[in-house]
Amino acid sequence: MNAQFKKGILELCVLVLTAKGDKYGYELVQMISEKFFIAEGTVYPLLRRLTKEGYFSTYLKESSGGPPRKYYTLTVEGRAYMDELVSEWNTFYEGVNLIVKEGLGDGAE
Amino acid sequence: MNAQFKKGILELCVLVLTAKGDKYGYELVQMISEKFFIAEGTVYPLLRRLTKEGYFSTYLKESSGGPPRKYYTLTVEGRAYMDELVSEWNTFYEGVNLIVKEGLGDGAE
DNA sequence: TTTAGTACCTTGCAATATACAGTACTGAAT
DNA sequence: ATTCAGTACTGTATATTGCAAGGTACTAAA
Lengths: 109, 109
Known about the structure:
homodimer, WH-like_DNA-bd_sf (chains A, B)
């Protein structure tokens, strides 16, 4: 999968995936990996950055069968930022799809 | 518009927009600008790179009302690469939309 | 002659995904 | 007992690419 496509989108992904409930890093890696390849080394720095920017708060929790997990909770600002990104994403991907349709010419232009 | 979203996608855009007929740089800038913001300084280097990589061939043509235009013609390799990118894009945006749906929970998860 | 529009080019910067390397815990297989 | 796979998090160096901001140069209208 084209690595460039993911720029900015992974941010959107981790934000929306924590919207309905706290998630830990490794769990997010697995959830996103179901849809397309993602490197572990990408997610953790991203989560740290978003936390630093105030979009997440975190807490540790013990795990049976491994080291403790760091859970990420979306803050109020995080939720607002997520809404903004989702809205931008919708505008964006629809625009791209129009261009693709226009270019490939399935009779709709 | 989030600048990161466009990484790699502008490449896809200029390729598909030349699929049905040769286009010149400024024209591509205008076509893409109808859907979302794009900086002129982004498109020209991109077109040069894709030409260097063998995906475009070019020719100059006089214009009434301005300097000569540089037209870009999609090569056979360019078309193959475009097909690949379109396919990757489709997989990608559908994956992202599933994640967004999953996260925002409109009952479909 | 000055401005707006057309049309192209170039450089430096910022953002971010990846590769790669490392730490550390648990449990099953050798 | 030890090795390995899986879980879980951290950190750094690198490559790619979009943007800002500058520039050149042509035509036509104010």
